[in-house]
């Protein structure tokens, strides 16, 4: 098992993030084991009996569950995220994307991650869940602070940011508990969902909404930043999308761009028994982190990790995870991504602008800042 002799944390690198892993399994300085190899990542993700997701002291639904309990909550949650269900919101997402694109085109300076990605993420999320529009600036400020807290590694700061977001969720949920007849939206449906044979408890509602919103706001912003960075540097691909492609082709292109520079960096597990992984012997109770970004660039699986090969790499792509915890939100996220990218390209040509481009660091990926220049089509 690899350990960097310099003592550097293999989770915290910048552009080296895009370098192939030197070893499929590595030790971090705090004792956590990092899974870098593609085959090893798939093995861990597909085996909840040996690699449990119950790693947090806090309620995490459904990600912190295993087995039948995980399956029960996934059935509840998946019903809200089926393609036929989320596609009803496509027109709203496209209107939101058009407004964000028009505002960006009129601005003097534009950051792809915050001015386009984060603003669209907040507006599309509130449109989907039925949250008040006046929450927009609070949520945008929260995204910025959450990025900063995450980068800092200060647990008290990240805890404060999480508590702030739980407070926002509580503000939204309580009126729907007290007066459900006044609301007709996804949040109210969840609050009064009885598909488990009972209503959800308040902490369960908050946990599910936190999973749907808090992490996804940052992930959507980062994903849009990654895609726009690629399109700014690959004008032929940008023009191909501008001319219009089928939904399936857009999905394949977006998946491949995100594979090359995956902003969904990692998920945690803990061993339930002694295991052998990538030639390394791990004891029971070992904390393990699947590094999706590294696995998606493993040269053992992808001969040239930088090559743009949507069809050839699709089967091995781990952007959305694999196994029982495969991301149920992909249909929703892809619908949002397609709306934002297509509406923007209909209005503007995208290129890099003067200004500092900054890569995001562990535990997030992609770009923290990417200035773009938009010229009307």
Question: Which sequence of strands runs across the widest sheet?
Answer: 1-2-8-5-3
CATH topology: Cytochrome p450
H-E order: EEHEHHHEHHHHHHHEEEEHHHEEEE
Class of secondary structure makeup: alpha+beta
How is this structure best described in words?
This protein is α+β, with helices and mostly antiparallel strands. It has one domain (15-376): Cytochrome p450. The protein has 14 helices and 12 strands. Helix 4 (90-106) crosses helix 14 and helix 9 (202-233) crosses helix 10 (235-243). It is globular and about 60 Å long. The termini are far apart. Keywords: Heme, Iron, Metal-binding, Monooxygenase, Oxidoreductase. This is Cytochrome P450. Belongs to the cytochrome P450 family. It comes from Corynebacterium hylobatis.
